[in-house]
Each structure stands twice: as C-alpha cells, then as structure tokens.
Amino acid sequence: MRVGVLMGGESSERSVSLRSGHAVCEAIDELGHEAIAIDPVSLHATLEALQSVDKVFIALHGSLGESGHIQGLLDWLKIPYTGSGLATSALCLNKRRTRQILAQHGFHYANWVVVDRQQSLQAIQSAADAIGYPLVVKPSSQGCSIGVSKVESPAQLEAAVMQAFEYDHDILLEAFISGREYTCGILGDTALPVVQIRSETFFDWTAKFGAQTATYHCPSDLDSDTERAIQQLSLSAFQALGCRGWGRLDVILGDDGQLYPIEMNTSPGMTQRSVYPMASREIGLDFPRTIEQILALATFDPV
C-alpha cells in the first residue's frame, strides 16, 4: 500500500507537524508499506503526489490540516484519509463552536466570552473584569497552546490580547481553572488510558515544545473511578462532535472535583514526546501498530 503522509504545511504548528509526519513515515515503512511524504505548500505538487497513493495519513496540525480544507480536497478526490471529516474538523478547530455544541450536551465549562479585533480595548477589559482574574486568553482556532497566555492582573491583559490577535480574529477569555490537567486519546470507539500532564509553569507552547518543562505520565495518578470518568467524558465528546477514527480530548480535573473539557484534537501530535502513542502503548500497541490501527479506520465522505 502506498500511503501519503501529509505533514508540514504553512500553519503556526509546521515544525511539530513535520516531526509527527517523519515519525509516521518511519512507522509505515516498518509495517511494510510505502510512505510518501507530502508537504502541501504547493497545490499543484500536492495534487500530483496524491494521484499515486491509496490512503492518506493526515499529520498536519492547525489550520489546513485540522480546519476541514484538506479533508474536503481528499473527499473530492475520493481518497481515504485518517481522522474526522470536513465538517467535524472545522468544528473542533473552532473553540467557540466546540464549546457551544458540548455545552448543549451537558458538558461543563468555566465562565468564558469571545471578543474580536473590532472591539475596543476598554470593552475587552470590561469583559475580562466580568470574568475575574486570573484568566486565560487564547486564539479561537489554534492548537498546541499557540498564542495562549495566563493573565494574573489587568496590567497583563493588553499584551496577552495583542499576542492572541496575532493568530486569530476571534479570541477567548476564560476563567482560569485551578486543577490538574489530563488528556485522553480515542481510537475508533475505544478510549485509551488517560495521560497525566505535569508542568512546573503554565502549560503553554514553551512548556510543551520550548523549555519542555512539562512531563507526561501514563498510567496517571488517578483512581480507577476518575480514570473511567475521564475516558467516558472523552468518548462522549468525540461522539457528540461527530469525530471519527482517532482524536484526543484535553481535560482539567478542577479542584472543585468537576471535569472541564478543554480542546478536542482531531489530528493529535505523533512526535517522540507525544502523549497519544504513550497511551496506546499501555494497551499493547507499539508505535507502528498504532499507526496501522489508525490507517485501518481511514475513510472519506462521498461528495
């Protein structure tokens, strides 16, 4: 089988995507298939490369890869691909829409509001005051904690807002949730073991990929009941959003005992430090077999 591995692209997550893609290519080769690395920076070259593949593994992160655009192209070409389809991908990349859908299904969120570039700084400050400090500022449609800041006081708000607006027209202000962070992968209709995330600092891009102060632990520190609760929450969110194939939900277990969904990832990272393969190893799947299972679920939406 010839498998096209889409990686890189032009999003702010390009560097992480390239690492994921190269790891996936190595696994596909190890499985005895032929991996074709495709960096979609040129439409003509991408279309030409896709003509020769049987399936596509989407290792793109952020815009293009998780926005539904590449999924729509692959649907049109009738090439099976990994992960969720066009509509669900676009939905999950938009934090505002994701929260609106999950809230309708009874999921809990801390107080939050969306603001945009057209609003004055004074209006944004008023919105922040209504939420209270500390709060978190984040772009609506970015992953990997890009452009995300924890704001401890009004004096820090403007800089955080300006940084987030570098990545998106709409940004979220939300109450900071004191608690512990976890993430749970989904493979088909199965929730993988929960991974605990520990960070000496606020869990932003730097903690993940810069200074890498974050550490990941699987098995986690959870008791069995809470572990199952996070797995059920993740699987329910996956289904409520219309996801398919594979994905990963980030969750905070608040000090109040409440579970708060943070973000649904429809194209999780697959680097050496990524948590998804860490979790799959706990159920006996090494990295190549994890890729094999994900590829087996690849499909497309007829158009």
Describe this structure in words.
The structure is a single chain. The chain has 303 residues and is α+β, with helices and mostly antiparallel strands. It folds into three domains: 2-84, Rossmann fold, CATH 3.40.50; 112-175, ATP-grasp fold, A domain (Dna Ligase, domain 1), CATH 3.30.1490.20; 178-297, 2-Layer Sandwich (D-amino Acid Aminotransferase, Chain A, domain 1). Helix content is 37%, strand content 23%. The protein is built from eleven helices and 13 strands. The protein has helices at 14-30, 43-50, 69-77, 86-93, 95-104, 121-131, 157-165, 205-209, 224-240, 275-281, 287-296, and strands at residues 2-6, 34-38, 55-58, 112-116, 135-139, 149-151, 170-175, 179-187, 190-191, 195-199, 214-217, 246-254, 259-265. The strands form three sheets. Strands 8, 9, 10, 11, 12 and 13 form a six-stranded antiparallel β-sheet that branches. The protein has a four-stranded antiparallel β-sheet with strand order 4-7-5-6, covered by helices on one side. Strand 8 (179-187) and strand 9 form a beta hairpin. Helix 1 (14-30) crosses helix 11. The longest helix is centred in the N-terminal third of the chain and has 17 residues, at 14-30. The two termini are 24 Å apart. The model has no long low-confidence stretch (mean pLDDT 92).
